[in-house]
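in:
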């Protein structure tokens, strides 16, 4: 009987997360993983190219999707030096100040005590059954564009991977705003007048082509993860706002290879997925210095800004360098059995803790369906306005449907500027006045 009681106590501690309290040393490790040196792998050197001829030698340090793309001869990658992507000091300071205040509740999607910073900065432990969920919370409350930012312009291209034909080009502007848990840009810690207790909002606006011009999307995410997001779509030719049904966030967005749930790597609730931590590895991820990459002259930006170039099979793959990084592998399985995907596998960079550097999406039969990745630039090697922001700047994306041999590519001009993202922009009324 005593043994049984002890087992129950230990199990309860595991569920609550009490046995995995973070320390000051954990904070140092999570934000400075390369303080003692960069990871290494036999034969891997800065400046080398990994291609179909040598990919087997480096399979161990490649995500499944990247390995598949190189093995098939669709692309090759150049290796860059591992560098530190330091996050903003206010976010790190907030993590220290509120260490161990965030606690998991009884159910996935329950979190109490969170104030600001990284909720769970400790190293994930394979013995912790909720380690994956904690990493998901770190993503939700992470530095995903910071307190506010925009991508303007943001070009999407729909491409036939077999022929290279560009079927459609859409010019967007995307905007992001954290309404709560703000740490850097005024107002801190919350945007006033937030009666609905929203945490974050995304506003999307189509500039071109004419047949889609002024199409708008608004996503409002609640601080309470158990509440379903509010999402609204405005179609310019209809001149009305309609609320999106829950299932529509998993439909193709404007005919692309992305669903709304794919935005930023994963654009959903923690409670919508079962999160499983699968281990820590050293993996090559697409992180670079924008100003040192092969840039394209295709888009004539007024200020001379140039976008990362694309190449490979069908022009589906960005031509940025990859770094060997410390990575947490996470598997996310939809709670809803009717969800169109079977699972996502994320390779989360341990320093940035975003979810979009390398993602594999599997269909419900368990077969690889899409390879989804976003290349990131160091903020100090991007636009002058981004310098010192402490944000990994999303710089180019590639969503490859390996079954349909089709892709959607993204060309970013990310700007960390609160002036471009007034709170009024993230309200339904703003959409109606957009004509």
């Amino acid at each position: 009987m005593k043994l049984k009681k002890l087992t129950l106590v230990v199990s309860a501690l595991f569920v609550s997360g009490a046995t995995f309290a973070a320390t000051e040393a954990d904070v140092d490790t999570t934000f400075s993983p390369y303080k003692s040196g960069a990871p290494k792998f036999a034969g891997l050197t800065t400046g080398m190219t990994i291609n179909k001829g040598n990919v087997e030698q480096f399979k161990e340090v490649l995500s499944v999707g990247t390995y598949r793309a190189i093995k098939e001869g669709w692309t090759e990658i150049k290796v860059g030096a591992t560098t530190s992507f330091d996050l903003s000091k206010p976010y790190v300071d907030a993590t220290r100040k509120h260490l161990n205040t965030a606690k998991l509740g009884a159910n996935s999607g329950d979190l109490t005590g969170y104030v600001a910073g990284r909720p769970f900065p400790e190293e994930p432990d394979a013995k912790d059954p909720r380690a994956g969920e904690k990493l998901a919370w770190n993503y939700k409350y992470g530095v995903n564009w910071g307190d506010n930012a925009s991508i303007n312009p943001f070009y999407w291209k729909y491409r036939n991977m077999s022929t290279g034909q560009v079927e459609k080009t859409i010019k967007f502007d995307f905007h992001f705003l954290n309404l709560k848990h703000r740490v850097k840009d005024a107002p801190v810690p919350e945007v006033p007048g937030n009666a609905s207790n929203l945490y974050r909002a995304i506003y999307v606006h189509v500039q071109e082509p004419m047949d889609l011009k002024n199409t708008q999307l608004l996503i409002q995410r609640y601080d309470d993860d158990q509440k379903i997001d509010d999402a609204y779509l405005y179609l310019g030719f209809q001149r009305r706002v309609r609320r999106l049904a829950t299932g529509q966030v998993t439909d193709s967005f404007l005919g692309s290879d992305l669903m709304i749930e794919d935005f930023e790597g994963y654009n959903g609730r923690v409670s919508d997925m079962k999160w499983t931590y699968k281990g820590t590895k050293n993996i090559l991820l697409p992180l670079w210095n924008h100003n040192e990459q092969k840039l394209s002259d295709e888009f004539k930006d007024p200020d001379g800004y140039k976008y990362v170039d694309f190449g490979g099979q069908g022009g589906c793959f960005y031509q940025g360098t990859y770094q060997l990084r410390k990575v947490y592998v996470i598997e996310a399985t939809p709670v809803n059995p009717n969800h169109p995907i079977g699972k996502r596998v994320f390779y989360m960079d341990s320093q940035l803790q975003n979810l979009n550097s390398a993602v594999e999406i599997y269909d419900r039969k368990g077969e690889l369906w899409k390879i989804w990745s976003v290349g990131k630039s160091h903020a100090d090697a991007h636009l002058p306005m981004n310098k010192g922001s402490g944000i990994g700047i999303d710089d180019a994306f590639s969503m490859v449907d390996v079954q349909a041999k089709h892709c959607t590519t993204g060309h970013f001009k990310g700007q960390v500027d609160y002036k471009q993202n007034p709170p009024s922009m993230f309200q339904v009324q703003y959409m109606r006045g957009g004509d």
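note: The radius of gyration is 21 Å.
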